[in-house]
Amino acid sequence: MKIELASSYGFCFGVKRAIKIAENAKDAVTIGPIIHNNDEINRLNLNFNVKTLEGIEEIKDEKKAIIRTHGITKGDLAELQKSDIKVIDATCPFVTKPQQICEKMSKDGYDVVIFGDENHPEIKGVKSYAVANAFVVLEESELDGVKLSQKVAVISQTTRKVEKFMQIVNYLMLRVKEVRVFNTICNATFENQDAVRELSKRADVMVVIGGKNSSNTKQLYLISKEFCPDSYLIENEAELNAAWFEGKNLCGISAGASTPDWIIQNIVDKIENFTQNS
Amino acid sequence: MKIELASSYGFCFGVKRAIKIAENAKDAVTIGPIIHNNDEINRLNLNFNVKTLEGIEEIKDEKKAIIRTHGITKGDLAELQKSDIKVIDATCPFVTKPQQICEKMSKDGYDVVIFGDENHPEIKGVKSYAVANAFVVLEESELDGVKLSQKVAVISQTTRKVEKFMQIVNYLMLRVKEVRVFNTICNATFENQDAVRELSKRADVMVVIGGKNSSNTKQLYLISKEFCPDSYLIENEAELNAAWFEGKNLCGISAGASTPDWIIQNIVDKIENFTQNS
């Protein structure tokens, strides 16, 4: 069986940047998991004494707080800045952007529609910048019956699929006079999605690697599954099962934006072992 | 055979308004055909001495110039206003709107994409208000290879189909960071299109009435033809053919926004005659 990596996968610019910031900070705490990858978070803890807190209320006498790639709410940021702790911002610049757009549009009198998961920290952060109406939706039908201004600004969670974003925009075009669309889906997301689409059309088994709570990884997995029914989403090599690869010709590999290369390498090594032993 | 009129058809607000303006003006000239219907233009000429000029260069010693529903270019309007002639503006307010948006967006640094027919007077007028880049397209592919700003405003000819407008917006979402969409397709267009769609699904012969140079009529005809292959586009009763109705059960009728009721009535009468004589 051949193993092929997608032409684009894994760590994006914002994640690489955040990890470098955390490694340099040392002895710091992060507000929420800095990236959605437990193994990498454990590594940062072991090697750099960077600990993960659930929220700002857990801060005690720590000296340095790192803001996670997904950002935090405007309120939490203000609290941190008022306190004595040193704030180190590792928010991905591609997440800072929709936060700024949300605030600006909201102040300019637009209702803001955010395409994303309301429980995801990125979206909680982005929404917190609205000063008036902001609606978080995953489906355009969630806006049925919602009273909207005739001026609506639309932004997307950075890791969403653009096709669904278009459907929401098209729906809004029929409902309001002005739809101001900011395509805030990040390029890394596009590239990883394009690459997994291409590879999953050719592969007869696909392994997508990433955190189970990682939005962009889930999107990669869904795309993969669409074209290759034998697709598996795993966090690390412990979850691999030799039976998945029996009788297969091409195993495709992709990984979410918060998956470090060392995890991917461990997985590739183990799959190769399966094949050699069979 | 039963004859059924679409639930919405014919004269729109802007056309009704323009005809009233022309009837009240009397002894005036219009710059280009005031609406796209030759029979109605002849009636205004005969009954109210309102004459149609091709352009402002044909003006001689006339006292009053009426601006057509589709509007004219910013340059022509300025020329008229500088001259001694009294300018009476019958531009449909739904056309004035995209003219204003085009000017404002263009001044605010947006490239403007206009979905429409570059040879149509409405679009010539709208485009003339741009102070920088403005691209008139009927297909998104016409923008392939065109260098665009990262901020694009999009407007539509008032009489276009919204599905294609959406395709152009979706294309732009993939190319630039901000797409500012103004849905300038007028409601009358939507309503007439919805109604012809519904009726043509049930009818086995459709007659769509309107000027051959009328954009909104052409759209109605295309929708009708999609669902009812035996669809005919005519300007008046002289073009009717008895054979179209032989063996048919339901004849649907729709008419463009510039088709007066008296023409529609003549056509319905003649079709009824066919049926009674057969």
From TrEMBL, chains A, B:
Keywords noted in UniProt: 4Fe-4S, Iron, Iron-sulfur, Isoprene biosynthesis, Metal-binding, Oxidoreductase
GO function terms (MF aspect): 4-hydroxy-3-methylbut-2-enyl diphosphate reductase activity
Cofactor(s) recorded in Swiss-Prot or TrEMBL: [4Fe-4S] cluster
Annotated residues for binding of dimethylallyl diphosphate: 36, 70, 120, 214-216, 258
Pfam families tied to this protein: LYTB
Root EC class: oxidoreductase
Cofactor, how bound (note): Binds 1 [4Fe-4S] cluster per subunit.
EC number: 1.17.7.4
Active-site positions on this chain: 122 (proton donor)
Chemical reaction(s) catalysed: dimethylallyl diphosphate + 2 oxidized [2Fe-2S]-[ferredoxin] + H2O = (2E)-4-hydroxy-3-methylbut-2-enyl diphosphate + 2 reduced [2Fe-2S]-[ferredoxin] + 2 H(+); isopentenyl diphosphate + 2 oxidized [2Fe-2S]-[ferredoxin] + H2O = (2E)-4-hydroxy-3-methylbut-2-enyl diphosphate + 2 reduced [2Fe-2S]-[ferredoxin] + 2 H(+)
Residues annotated for (2E)-4-hydroxy-3-methylbut-2-enyl diphosphate binding in this entry: 36, 70, 120, 158, 214-216, 258
Domain of life: Bacteria
Family per record: Belongs to the IspH family.
Matches recorded under PANTHER family: 4-HYDROXY-3-METHYLBUT-2-ENYL DIPHOSPHATE REDUCTASE (PTHR30426:SF0)
The protein, known as: 4-hydroxy-3-methylbut-2-enyl diphosphate reductase
